[in-house]
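Why show two proteins at once? Because comparison is the fastest way to build intuition. When a single record is shown, students tend to memorize it. When two are placed side by side, the eye starts asking what differs. So, the first record is below.
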Amino acid sequence: MGTPRALADAWRQARHVVVLTGAGLSTASGIPDFRSPGGRWERYQPVPLPEFLASERAREAYWRYKGETWQLICAAEPNAAHAALADLARAGRIDLLVTQNVDGLHERSGFPPERLVNIHGTDSAVECMACHRRAPRAVAQAVWEAGMAVPRCDCGGPWKPATISFGQQLVAVDLERALDAAAACDLFVAAGTSLVVAIVTASETPYDAAADVRIAAPVEQVLPAVRDLLR
């Protein structure tokens, strides 16, 4: 176990810091995570990309889930953890933040966009699976809310939120940037997700024994405390 002060001390000594954030960072904003008890995967089975492309029924199930969760995302606001990370980045204490989240709360917190990688894409845009044209999410969302089970592009292809689904490759340039930054950093902080080296998440992870600092307190409490200690 560790403390915010131990993490702040490690952060202060590091020349290059990379942060990885996951769904646990946004739970305090009212967006439930995936794997924890009561999380989204207990109520929803993910639709892999090959199934989305092959089956209208799968596309309808996908949009039923995505249409409802977009309404939840739109109502959410960045929490204290998002704000603390944005402050640390603006102070030059984060080289790169890689987020697994697709909710856009880092952007809305004022995090510098040039230091942010959305490794799993974003829910704020849609992509046509036929012509690959992109458009704002509102274009497809409005059609779904009006009763179309699977919104479609003008070319006839199905719209899909611009997130990375199971069976879909990560964007190569984003992955390379994230891996390069992680390999070069002195401190790697996993917040709200289950990776290494400094772990800040409420649930146990498979890598707790390998971490230099493991803090189980809520991220919306820990990260503001770390920011304040670094000021």
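Second record. Ask yourself what differs from the first in the token line.
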Amino acid sequence: MPVLKTLGLSKQYDATVALSPLNLLVESGEVIGVVGENGAGKSTLMKLLAGIVQPTQGQIEWNGLTARFRDANDTSAAGIQIVHQELNLIPTLSVEDNIFLGQERGKGFVNRAETRRLTSILLEKVGAKFAPTALCEDLSIAEQQLVEIAKALSREAKLIIFDEPTAVLSEPESEKLFEIIGSLKQQGVAILYVSHRLPEVLRICSRIVVLRDGEKVADQSPEGLSESDLADLMVGRKLQDIFPERVPHSTDVSMSVNSLNVPGFCQDISFSVRKGEILGFGGLIGSGRTEACEAIFGVRNGTGEVAIEGASIGKFTLQNALKYGIAYVSEDRKGKGLVVSMSIDENICLACLKELNSVAKRHKTGQKWIEDLKIKVSDSTLPMTSLSGGNQQKCSVGKWLETNPKVIILDEPTRGIDVGSKAEMYRLISDLASKGLAVIVISSEMPELIGLAHRVAVFREGKIVGELSGEQITENGIMTLAAGVTSEVAA
């Protein structure tokens, strides 16, 4: 008997059909991949199954019985858990308190010794190295994601929905997650695995459901499917040449960084980036890439010298960074990049409020970036929450492009973006470089660095340990430097 069955499940918002009537069957111990472009209906399906929103029509059968989940508490009690792409933790609470929040027994008192013991077991299962007592605000994004997974495991789920679970995980951490999923499968737990990383979906899923424009267009075994086949199903057309051709760059240096030190994160970082050049930053999560760039942008303490076109910016402050033409697009778009309670045009204009000092100016600017970045929304006055994750990321980029920078740093620019939107983002990055903008791309996806960058600087343990260019930019070359192994071993 299937653990989950949907019959004509659909959701409509006014005139917008977010999910057309969907029939879906999920067996116990089955790992089903759910893929599609942003706006295809994946998030809507997850919200319906998790009880976050109610269907317009259709029904859900859970363990053979018609289920009416009134809210997320109902689905959690039934055994459905979701590991969100956007972190859902209370940063000022400890790991153990986040994991067991709402699960207190008796009269609401916490059995501290027991929760700590159980948390230690859960953290070991997900390969986490931090303590149960650690505050979540002190953890990296990747570590916080591991807490989310541990929290789902603590609730004895019968169905777990993973939403882009490896987006912020390193390769070893991702491999550990796949082991966890394999173990859950053996225990009879059903998995819905939502991801834009097609190689992962093809590797670990026994069945793949493809959504496009709110409709199910495929539901089949991955056998015989290639990444290209899957991408074509997602976008409804042949997707070729995802990476644009590299254009030559100037020899003029746009930004130089000398002896940059960020206490506790990186030391003696020196590099330069030229006008029209795309410089990739490779390395494992925690290697210091993000912290170095945050210091350059003035949002983290650091020392050293940064010069734009030969002129020192002086102290590392946000004001100086903007004054000299440095922009930084954070990897954490909801935590640091956007104010999701505000409208789209308000977000896009946040960095230029002095110039865009009227509603009319902000609306015009918002509409401009919607068109230029192909953001899928009809009106820039709509709330940011009305956009998918990928389109929110485009707004975050647009906000900093509006400052007319000379150097733009893009930290994990395609995190949570589907394959079609990735191609658009790559074309945008290439176009910015072709206009003379110096671009730094921090990415944990090696194909991205290989396909985009003119050069790749590789970080390890807070230092730049090597630089690759041209045909040297390969997965083997990057990983050899990032992992600290010798060429002979890597070969």
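One difference worth noting in the second protein: DSSP finds 18 helices and 20 strands in the chain.
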